[in-house]
Write a structure and sequence with these properties.
CATH superfamily of the largest domain: Type I PLP-dependent aspartate aminotransferase-like (Major domain)
Strand order of the largest sheet: 5-13-12-11-10-6-9
Largest sheet: 7 strands, mixed
Structural class: alpha/beta
CATH architecture of the largest domain: 3-Layer(aba) Sandwich
Number of strands: 18
Helix content: 40-55%
Mean pLDDT: 92
Radius of gyration: 28 Å
CATH class of the largest domain: Alpha Beta
Distance between the termini: 37 Å
Bound molecules: pyridoxal-5'-phosphate
Length: 477
């Protein structure tokens, strides 16, 4: 084949554009600039094919075919990549699935604010500049009593800022049992290094006593730091200095004290292990100068790092140059205020992550039974078997590790299909349905089922045998 002759057969950009229907209602809805770019890309790809000696065929070179390809490219790009998934994994604060969903009520209050200008940094009656840091504080301090509060981008940022302001260039004493890694990227020793503070490890992996902290304090010590172990639990021969002991020692020696709590449980939750989970209010009462936790773990709000503590320490953190780099925007402030308002009003049913943790096992069982009943009454397709089983859900987000929450799920089997095939077909749906594939069975735990998703699940179950048959045909096995 003669490559030079074939590249001359490529259509010109303008010829392709002329074949497109006009944009607008009934048309394709893509801007001219986006289309021109997509047409150029499609032609460039064809040119590469031809020059490489591969003949795309005369049909692919037709202006209409190139136009259709360009429209397809614009549509794919416009779809973006962030999409809804249905979380039926039994993990409530699922770090890979966006942690805490926000309720329609919280989002609608947030949207009302963000659709217009706000007093984000303006003191309206005084006609002067205000501070974005003042907004959440009064609400937050009603839920977590402390002298002062403010928000940063996430909990990792809160810890970084506390270390950078209160201990830069000096020593911070931490128990070896608390040098944790969270979520693969947040490691206490690395954050410490990034902040410019020097880590002094004390005790052993399994036992650290208050005397170990005491011995490590020297002229260069600035802070005692205590982290919640969060995502793992140690059993057996284990001893820790208590939060109260560490805070009292720091105060007695004139040192700062910072607690990294991770999850930030603000509500009394009837889940196993919750009684041992330190609440931010309890750690403030224990005497820590600064307490940091995430906004989107057990609190159930937007991604944020919450800082509460002594007025002086918090004010210093707000003034640090990094505070500007780690600050939150009005979306976070509005969504956090809307979430905290639910706590004050006792409307935790409107904080989805907390509502999911509050749901008794009997309620989750009733949801399972309803899903199965609805599927049966629509006529179960041949080969599909559904059964309600007992399972253990988890808080997730590194909170209450090792404590299962009694829950229920719908076990899904399709005759002749492996459990991996059932799981894959549910994942391939739109939206994808993510269940739990363990011990050779697929179980959907509706503890985290959100309003409106029951229909989606029932429909996916009814279509499952057909979807599996189709997937098997496609892969030819
Ligand atoms: C989750 C967690 C972090 C990180 O919080 P982000 O909000 O994800 O930045 C830090 N420390 C502890 C103890 C945690 O559990």
């Amino acid at each position: 084949m003669d490559a030079r002759r074939t590249t001359r057969e490529l259509p010109a950009v303008n010829r392709v554009l002329r074949t497109l229907p006009p944009a607008g209602p009934g048309g394709h809805g893509a801007s001219r600039a986006a289309l021109v770019r997509a047409v150029r890309e499609a032609i460039a790809d064809l040119r590469r094919e031809v020059l490489a000696g591969r003949d795309p065929g005369p049909a692919a070179l037709a202006p209409e075919a190139v136009a259709a390809e360009a429209l397809r490219r614009v549509a794919t790009a416009a779809a973006g990549s962030l999409r809804t998934v249905v979380n039926l994994t039994g993990v409530v604060v699922h770090t890979n699935l966006g942690r805490s969903p926000l309720s329609r009520q919280v989002l609608s209050e947030t949207a009302d604010l963000l659709a217009g200008y706000t007093n984000l940094e303006y003191d309206v009656p005084a006609r002067r500049r205000g501070s974005r840091n003042d907004h959440v504080a009064s609400l937050l301090l009603r839920v977590v009593p402390a002298e002062a509060a403010f928000l940063v981008n996430n909990n990792a940022a809160a810890v970084l800022l506390a270390l950078a302001e209160l201990a830069r260039g000096r020593e911070v004493v931490v128990s070896r049992g608390e040098l944790v890694e969270i979520g693969g990227a947040f490691r206490i020793p690395d954050v410490m290094a990034a902040s410019g503070a020097r880590l002094v490890e004390v005790g052993t992996t399994n036992r650290t006593r208050i005397a170990d902290y005491e011995r490590a304090i020297g002229p260069d010590t600035a802070m005692l730091f205590k982290a919640h172990r969060s995502n793992f639990r140690m059993e057996g021969f284990v001893e820790d200095a208590s939060w109260e002991e560490v805070a009292a020692l720091a105060r007695g020696r004139g040192l700062s004290s910072v607690a990294d709590l991770g999850s930030g449980m603000l509500a009394d939750l009837p889940v196993p292990g919750a009684a041992d989970e330190p609440s931010p209010a309890a750690i403030v009462r224990a005497g820590f100068d600064v307490v940091c936790f995430s906004g989107d773990k057990m609190l159930g709000g937007p991604q944020a790092g919450v800082v509460v503590g002594l007025a002086d320490a918090v004010a210093r953190m707000k003034r640090h140059p990094l505070a500007r780099a780690l600050r939150v925007g009005s979306f976070t402030i509005a969504a956090m205020e809307a979430t905290l308002r639910r706590y004050l009003a006792g409307r935790l049913d409107e904080v989805p992550a907390v509502a999911a943790l509050l749901a008794p096992a009997s309620e989750v069982k009733a949801r399972c039974a309803r899903i199965v009943r609805r599927a049966r009454s629509s006529g179960l397709p041949a080969g599909l078997a559904l059964r309600v089983v007992s399972v253990a859900a988890e808080v997730g987000g590194g909170a209450l590790p090792g404590h299962g929450i009694p829950s229920h799920g719908v076990e899904v089997r399709v005759e002749g299909a492996s459990d991996a095939a059932v799981d894959a077909a549910l994942r391939a749906g739109d939206p994808p349905i993510l269940g739990r594939l363990t011990e050779g069975r697929v179980v959907l735990d509706p503890r985290t089922l959100l309003p409106g998703q029951e229909d989606v699940v029932v429909r996916a179950l009814l279509g499952l045998p057909a979807a599996i048959a189709e997937a098997t045909r496609d892969t030819g096995d």
